[in-house]
Structure formats: structure tokens, C-alpha cells
Amino acid sequence: MIAQAKVRAGKPNVEFVCxxxxxxxxxxxxxxxxxxxxxFHLVEDAxxxxxxxxxxxxxxxxxxxxxxxxxxxxxxFKFGLMKRAIPLMKWxxxxxxxxxxxIKGLEAVITGAGFExxxxxxxxxxxxxxxxxxxRK
Length: 137
What we know:
Blueprint: H1 2-9, E1 31-37, H2 46-56, E2 57-68, H3 76-91, H4 103-112, E3 115-122, E4 129-136
Parallel strand pairs: 1-2
Antiparallel strand pairs: 2-4, 3-4
């Protein structure tokens, strides 16, 4: 995805990187936008990651993400079954850590890190994959 973004960007002031958010090479306030898609449900210490993203953003910088909210009750049959299977698969060493967060819980962690939520939506609605645009306060 990074390679495709680099080919399509065509802008000298745009940089795409795939890195750990805690990389010390990244300085506080050095980003205008941080984006993360379909990964925060796999991050064990998501509140710490959101706080670090907040620090990395310049004032009024934007955090844009989309995260599966697997803690919601309306997942449908297939995802509901998968939700029940993940803990067993993890115990057997066949699945990674997975956070079962609700939409309300996700938004609470993001605002708790110091963000103001600007826009949200669920795409798709079921299972809810929650899209968030948040601004550093």
C-alpha cells in the first residue's frame, strides 16, 4: 500500500511511511496528518498509541482512522462466530491479540488522548468499521 501511495501521490511535500508510532526518529508536532486503518483493534496498548499520535501531530493536526468495532453486538452471523473463535485461536497460538471495542469505547479512548472528534461514520455498517476524523486540541 505504501508503494502504491508513493506512485500516486505526486506531491513533493507528502511522505508515506510504514513505521512504529513510537519510533524516536519522529518528533512531537512534526506531522499534519496521521492515518491508521484497520489496525488499532490489533494494538494491545491502544490508549498509549493514540496519546503518542496526539503528541506527533502539530496543533490542529488531524488523526484519521477506521477501526473494526468488534465489541458491538450487531456483528451478524459470520463475524459473531469469528468473535467467539478468536480467543480460542489466540490461546492455540493461531491468532494475534484482538481488541473487542465498542464504538462508544473507541471514541472515549480517542477523546481521552486529547482529540476532538470532527466526523464519524460506520463503513460498512455491519460489522461496524468505525471511521473517525479527530483534531488535536
